[in-house]
């Protein structure tokens, strides 16, 4: 069996799941904006009822927004952490299909017209490149890959603190996402007066 993509953080999220939706808005910026942008771009390229996958869907907050933006679409969320999926299941209608497992290890019914990764690639460590490749492997031709995540930080101390929370800053993330094709949209934005930057990327 191939090495699973990502780490099993069940213990970490067992502690964090109850407070996740209260605390993460303080530093996981740009998520709603990414969803609005991908909905706009999807409409502009003529996608009708796009099939949508969120990798690392967590408590389902993004999927709830996507359900409103794409009421007739097939929505699938995958996550390694059962405690997070339990909360997502309580939040979302049964029409949203939730899967516990690692990307590339379970059948998700690919291909998807939109694949979203929100603040999860920075938690994949050395498997980040493989995770990006796996996301593209389930993407339909000319489908949209949409990512928002931590980008870089000038503070080594902050980077070490985030590493304790399983987050690794990677200034090369946009280049890894780009590959040999230019993005449709890319922004790198400052958080807390430059304490760190986060990026929003949409492409194929």
Structure write-up:
It is built from 8 helices and 7 strands. By secondary structure, it is of the alpha/beta class. The chain has a 7-stranded mixed sheet with strand order 3-2-1-4-5-7-6. α3 (31-44) packs parallel to α4.
Q: What does the oligomeric state look like here?
A: single chain
Q: Could you say which overall geometry the principal axes of the C-alpha atoms support?
A: globular
Low-confidence stretches: 1-6
Order of helices and strands: HHHEHEHEEHEHHEE
Total count of helical runs of at least 4 residues = 8
Q: What structural class do the secondary elements suggest?
A: alpha/beta
What is the radius of gyration?
Answer: 16 Å
Spatially, the strands of the biggest sheet line up as 3-2-1-4-5-7-6
Mean pLDDT: 90
Work out the number of β strands.
Answer: 7
* Helix content estimate: 25-40%
How is the biggest beta sheet arranged?
7 strands, mixed
Taken as a percent bin, the fraction of beta residues is 15-25%
Give the termini separation.
Answer: 28 Å
SSE map:
Layout: H1 10-16, H2 20-23, H3 31-44, E1 52-55, H4 61-69, E2 75-79, H5 82-91, E3 97-100, E4 112-118, H6 128-137, E5 139-152, H7 156-164, H8 173-178, E6 185-191, E7 196-203
Parallel strand pairs: 1-2, 1-4, 2-3, 4-5
Antiparallel strand pairs: 5-7, 6-7
Helix pairs in contact: 3-4
């Amino acid at each position: 069996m191939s090495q699973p993509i990502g780490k099993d953080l069940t213990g970490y999220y067992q502690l964090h799941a109850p407070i996740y939706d209260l605390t993460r808005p303080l530093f996981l910026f740009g998520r709603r904006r990414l969803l609005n942008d991908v909905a706009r771009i999807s409409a502009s390229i003529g996608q009708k009822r796009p099939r949508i996958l969120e990798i690392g869907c967590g408590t389902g907050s993004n999927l709830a927004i996507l359900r409103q933006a794409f009421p007739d679409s097939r929505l699938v969320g995958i996550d390694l952490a059962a405690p997070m999926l339990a909360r997502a299941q309580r939040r979302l209608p049964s029409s949203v299909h939730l899967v516990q497992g690692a990307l590339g290890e379970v059948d998700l019914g690919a291909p998807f017209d939109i694949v979203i990764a929100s603040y999860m690639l920075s938690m994949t460590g050395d498997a980040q490149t493989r995770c990006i490749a796996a996301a593209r492997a389930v993407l339909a031709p000319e489908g949209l890959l949409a990512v928002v995540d931590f980008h870089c930080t000038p503070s080594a101390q902050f980077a070490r603190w985030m590493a304790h929370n399983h987050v690794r800053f990677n200034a090369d993330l946009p280049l890894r996402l780009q590959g040999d094709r230019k993005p449709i949209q890319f922004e790198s934005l400052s958080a807390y007066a430059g304490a760190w930057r986060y990026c929003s990327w949409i492409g194929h």
